[in-house]
Amino acid sequence: MRRRLALIAGATVAASLLTAPLFTAQAAPTLLSQGHAVTASSTENAAFPASAAVDGDPGTRWSSLAADPQTLQVDLGASHTLNQIVLQWETAYAKAFTIQASADGSQWSTVY
Q1: Distance (Å, rounded) from C-alpha 110 to C-alpha 75?
Q2: Is residue 37 classed as helix, strand or coil in its secondary structure?
Q3: Which of 7, 14, 51, 58 is the most exposed place for a label (fewest CB within 10 A)?
Q4: Residue 18 confidence (pLDDT)
Q5: Domain ranges in the chain?
Q6: What is the pairing mode between strands 37-40 and 109-110?
Q7: pTM (2 d.p.)
């Protein structure tokens, strides 16, 4: 089974580094989403692609069109236990959002 994450925001979304760090004793967090397939409901322009949300570069970001709602979906490629999700917002961040997880990309459970 594959684990997917989706961010659903009720405002313009400008997120970078959708992360799911997994911690072990004294280890640096692993960016679980980095390099995985990511899709978005919209992109503001070519300078802010969905892939920039999970590329591990704090200097890049994804930005959606200014319309509600917007989604960002990351296919993690396999099932994972998630213990933390970190969103780093640009100044035009969403006022409300939902984080959902799915094993199949069809049935979703809200995790936040």
Answers
A1: 16
A2: strand
A3: 58
A4: 42
A5: 4-98
A6: unpaired
A7: 0.72
Separation of alpha carbons 40 and 6, rounded Å: 9
Percentage of the residues of the chain whose pLDDT score is greater than 70: 73
Give the whole-angstrom CA distance, residue 96 versus residue 4: 20
Length of the chain measured in residues: 112
The dihedral region occupied by 76, where left means phi > 0, alpha psi between -120 and 50, and beta the remainder, is: alpha
Residue 64, amino acid: S
If one counts every other C-beta atom within 10 angstroms of the C-beta of residue 107, the result is: 8
Query: What is each CA distance from 58 to 26, 52, 53, 72, 110, in whole angstroms?
Result: 22, 9, 9, 17, 27
Give the CA distances from residue 74 to residues 3, 27, 100, in Å, rounded to whole numbers and listed in that order. Answer: 9, 24, 11
Joined together, the tokens standing for residue 29 give: 């967090």
Which ranges in the chain belong to alpha helices (H)?
Answer: none
Would you state the pLDDT for residue 13?
42
